[in-house]
């Protein structure tokens, strides 16, 4: 089983990297960019075929390590 | 005093902090991150600067969950002293021993320069050798030192006097110019609730020798040693 975890900054947390990327896109002449927030994507292989077990493992992975919930949100998608 | 300096893969400032502690009169043991216990009789645990685990994922995130950190948490819970410098501060935040997080510097640049800090209070085990409000001349070297916390945490830190140091000018004035990484409230270091854990971005261990241009960092290590002797 495969899963994708997406970690993004919470609303209101300043993202200087996203701002810099936004500025770079504008300077490249890419039109229509309103704002950029940078995040992380983790593609994870799971040993189990049990979806609820996979969900529990992924939630533990996010809470314990992948996301710092002080500033980040996470989203789990199981393929 | 007995100090345990924890070494993670990618730590690189342990040599300097060992030297600073030895000059102040401490016994020192280096402890590898995979250990499950601290040496018997450890008074002070130091998490040195560097780039533990290559700053992968988030600075300090992986080191903050290393085996030895359970022993460090237990030491702190017993009231034992813990000092985290630079990457060590990031590790303390990631391990839950201190609140908040160190984000990328607001100007996106790695900063490396001499830096004055205002000593907020001198009644803690870390700062007795300084005067309250004194500006100490140390240095900073980091890319992720932008202290960030939610409003409630910030209010609590300020309300309970848990801010240890702020970025200041040479006279101890906390100015916007002195806050080069964009930290909230110019915070350079914070204490735990019981004042036994200190995390700070600047490097006091760099300024302990006249040869390198200053000795203002000595006071922190001397404070710790005299506190442990008195205890």
UniProtKB/TrEMBL annotation, chain A:
Pfam families: PurS. InterPro entries: PurS, PurS-like_sf. Pathway: Purine metabolism; IMP biosynthesis via de novo pathway; 5-amino-1-(5-phospho-D-ribosyl)imidazole from N(2)-formyl-N(1)-(5-phospho-D-ribosyl)glycinamide: step 1/2. Keywords: ATP-binding, Cytoplasm, Ligase, Nucleotide-binding, Purine biosynthesis. One of its GO terms (cellular component) is cytoplasm. Its main location: cytoplasm. The keyword Ligase applies. It comes from the Bacteria. It is an enzyme of class 6 (ligase). HAMAP family: PurS. Part of the phosphoribosylformylglycinamidine synthase complex involved in the purines biosynthetic pathway. Catalyzes the ATP-dependent conversion of formylglycinamide ribonucleotide (FGAR) and glutamine to yield formylglycinamidine ribonucleotide (FGAM) and glutamate. The FGAM synthase complex is composed of three subunits. PurQ produces an ammonia molecule by converting glutamine to glutamate. PurL transfers the ammonia molecule to FGAR to form FGAM in an ATP-dependent manner. This is Phosphoribosylformylglycinamidine synthase subunit PurS. It comes from Microvirga subterranea. The lineage of its organism: Bacteria, Pseudomonadati, Pseudomonadota, Alphaproteobacteria, Hyphomicrobiales. The gene is purS.
From TrEMBL, chain B:
Gene3D superfamilies: 3.40.50.880. It is found in: Cytoplasm. GO terms for molecular function: ATP binding; glutaminase activity; phosphoribosylformylglycinamidine synthase activity. InterPro entries: Class_I_gatase-like, PRibForGlyAmidine_synth_PurQ. It catalyses: L-glutamine + H2O = L-glutamate + NH4(+); N(2)-formyl-N(1)-(5-phospho-beta-D-ribosyl)glycinamide + L-glutamine + ATP + H2O = 2-formamido-N(1)-(5-O-phospho-beta-D-ribosyl)acetamidine + L-glutamate + ADP + phosphate + H(+). The keyword DNA repair does not apply. Pfam families: GATase_5. One of its GO terms (biological process) is 'de novo' IMP biosynthetic process. The active site is at residues 86, 203, 205. Pathway: Purine metabolism; IMP biosynthesis via de novo pathway; 5-amino-1-(5-phospho-D-ribosyl)imidazole from N(2)-formyl-N(1)-(5-phospho-D-ribosyl)glycinamide: step 1/2. Its EC number is 6.3.5.3, 3.5.1.2. Keywords: ATP-binding, Cytoplasm, Glutamine amidotransferase, Hydrolase, Ligase, Nucleotide-binding, Purine biosynthesis. GO terms for cellular component: cytoplasm. Part of the FGAM synthase complex composed of 1 PurL, 1 PurQ and 2 PurS subunits. PANTHER family: PHOSPHORIBOSYLFORMYLGLYCINAMIDINE SYNTHASE SUBUNIT PURQ (PTHR47552). Part of the phosphoribosylformylglycinamidine synthase complex involved in the purines biosynthetic pathway. Catalyzes the ATP-dependent conversion of formylglycinamide ribonucleotide (FGAR) and glutamine to yield formylglycinamidine ribonucleotide (FGAM) and glutamate. The FGAM synthase complex is composed of three subunits. PurQ produces an ammonia molecule by converting glutamine to glutamate. PurL transfers the ammonia molecule to FGAR to form FGAM in an ATP-dependent manner. This is Phosphoribosylformylglycinamidine synthase subunit PurQ. It comes from Microvirga subterranea.
